[in-house]
Amino acid sequence: MAAPGVPRCGGGSLGLLVWLLAFQPLLSEARAGRNERRLVLGSSSGGGGGSWDLAGGQQRHLRSFVPSTGTCGHRVMRIVGGVPSPERKWPWQVSLQINNVHKCGGSLIAPRWVLTSAHCVRGHEEYTVRLGDTLLQSNSQNAVVIPVQDIICYNYYNYQTMRHDIALVLLALSVNYSAYIQPVCLPGKDFEVKAGTVCWATGWGRTLQFGETGWQDLRGDQVILHYTTCNRMVKKQEKPFPKVVRKGMVCGYHEKTLPSWGCCQGGDAGGPLVCQFNDRWIQMGIVSWGIHCALTEVPAVYTDVRFYKDWVYGTMNQASILDSGGFFIPWVCLMLALSILVTL
């Protein structure tokens, strides 16, 4: 797990959104020639910060921002046994890097969006995302490296309690899907995973054959735990000030120790916890924190994606307003600058 630090939260260029929302009617009117349906701010539920709905109540799924259900959660074939993941097995797994050095995992959820942990992003570093590869130091022809344009953390992320440990990474360019690069599905509001369900966590762990400099995409099965059971197990191990598993978190544990894999090893943080339903893979969690890596009696704790789905979709759709506002955005910036000068 990456060590927590000063998170890079706030959203950089998306900070302009606060001002742009005041001019939303102008932006919507400018788009009327292309799309006559008007965007309105819908009510939020769960842990989200609001979602963008179409007038009339239909959810707005924007091209290049939110994947359709027909394109996400597919891979070439299932994984069998406890071996390193071959290529194409987890095509949504990405590596978040600084200066071409792996820092955290993540998952592709749309052509320009990656989901990861808030504690993975710190300071004012320049990040890139590597997709389509399993051996990070290989010269794979399938690998794609894209610069990061922006990172948006959940507003109330707390690195001490690890609450709200979720962040969205906006890529500078849209990625083209292939057999090696595919988005994972996000769960619906009513989607529920019962305790005892076996899901899979993937991440970039160090392997003995590559020594201290090698990273390979590894995976392990995780049995989903009820939060009361998880809290009891966590409090038993971490004393006297145990972290508490709260709303917005989900737990999993591995019944048999894997010598080369532990979901809280360095490089695994930010990676996805995925469950298979009806031949489709759905991301239920984000690797967040744990105690005593690879011990079977201690669960790993993940950010519960369901709890933050409204925030995820709302953030992506709000960002699309900046993208589709076109020529209005420079004019809005100019108007804001002029208004400041007038008040001086």
UniProtKB/TrEMBL annotation:
One of its GO terms (molecular function) is serine-type endopeptidase activity. This is Peptidase S1 domain-containing protein. Keywords: Disulfide bond, Hydrolase, Protease, Signal. Residues 79-317 form the Peptidase S1 domain. InterPro entries: Peptidase_S1_PA, Peptidase_S1_PA_chymotrypsin, Peptidase_S1A, Trypsin_dom. Residues 1-32 form the signal peptide. One of its GO terms (biological process) is proteolysis. It holds the Pfam family Trypsin. It comes from the Eukaryota. SUPFAM superfamilies: Trypsin-like serine proteases.
